[in-house]
Design brief:
Belongs to the NMD3 family. By secondary structure, the protein is of the alpha+beta class. The chain is built from 13 helices and 26 strands.
Length: 499
Amino acid sequence: MENLVDEQMVMDEQIATILCCSCGIPILHNPAAMCIDCLKTSTDITEGIPREAVLNFCRSCERFLSPPSQWVNAQPESRELLALCLRKLRGLNKAWFIWTEPHSRRVRVKLTIQKEAFVSTILQQSFEVEYVVTNQQCLDCAKLHAKNTWKASVQIRQKVQHKRTFLYLEQLILKHNAHRDCNNIVEVKDGLDFFYPSRNGAIKMVDFLNNVVPVRTKKSEELISMDVHTSTNTYKFTWSVELIPICKDDLVCLSGKLAKSLGNISQLLLCSRVGNSIHLIDPLTLRTTDVACPVYWRTPFCTLADIHELVEFTVLDVELLGQTHGRLALADVEIAKSSDLGVNDQQYTVRTHLGAILKPGDTARGYHLTTTNFNDPEYESLDQSLLPDIILVKKSYPNRRKKNKTRNWKLRTLSKEQTEMNPRKQDIEKQERDYEEFLRDLEEDTEMRSMVNVYKHKDRPTKMEGLDEGIVGEDEDDADFPEIPIEELLDEMHEMKLE
């Protein structure tokens, strides 16, 4: 019985083992009747896969062409570039880059593929594909060099003496990345021009502006070319966007009809904030109201005075009246003009909405109405005996500002192109003053600061770091100086690149 079993096992081994038809070595039975080495030499599973290819690269915008006509960003040896290389190659199992010199204009990819050579016989083979990077200008860059750079533009204008509103709008655009579709931004005298390669990008920008600031728009179009055979026309579209000429901390005077329609509020008001509507406050009663954009353009009103006409006063005494509205408190304040201290003893008692933040010894800035002439018929129609002598607007910190302390934070800015005419020295100084005033507004207004992104300044120590190293000190009289806490600062600042 045992002999029969041994004979059967020998027969099974003889059946399972055969000789390779090419080299004659014993191998296990397979449909090809060949050993693995002979299969590899006689069968090429990479047949039909090209060993060389071309990658089209635009040197201007540094993008690669993804057929048929899409241009994509891809860094060297990135997943995006590998996907672009393998898009037309099939039957792939593994792929990775082989390092090459950046200036060689070559991209080498090593591939490992598997394929069924015969029935139930799968082979695996590795090989290299070399891609030659050739220069080809993309359509967007071609239009740029041909000075046919845009199909739609958005022209934003505001007729005011300062650019604080534009600086705030610039930060809103950066935070929401509303400029991502434009290919150029040009700074002009009264605003900014945004240029777009397509009409949809300009429409998105106009919609964004309507949601964040009170504006009115006007659309126009210009015929560029016309094909009479196909009835195809090419247009350039332009949206003219006008911002209201009212800014934060401006003094305004409403018409009597408009004041009655807003709940019979006082005609003489302060602008506390500008969002998608105008927020006004009566500093004598703490009453507030909002003027919607359509209401303003139906019954427009002008600014009586702006921040350039603010006068500095010193607070001598504060008496709270008990009436509050949010962070504001009504108070009677005894003040004197800072420039008159030591010259005369003239003092004023005024009612203000800043009672919660003022204390004796502080300084505040306000409008001195009795020494200012306003050429406004609505203001002249008011009963002058009922008007206050002074309207305080905001608390100021002149002693701390004189120290010129460097800020440990910074803001991003748009990549703007200047016009051909260089700005004058006076204009540059005025822009620097407006920018400094905007930075102070961010420090003092928490609500305004929450709408923008503020970043850490890596080259300057934070407040806590300075205290640990003995660099930064804080005086007792500056304890309430508004500073942006470190918790509100973002770590990294990534510059946006226009594509």
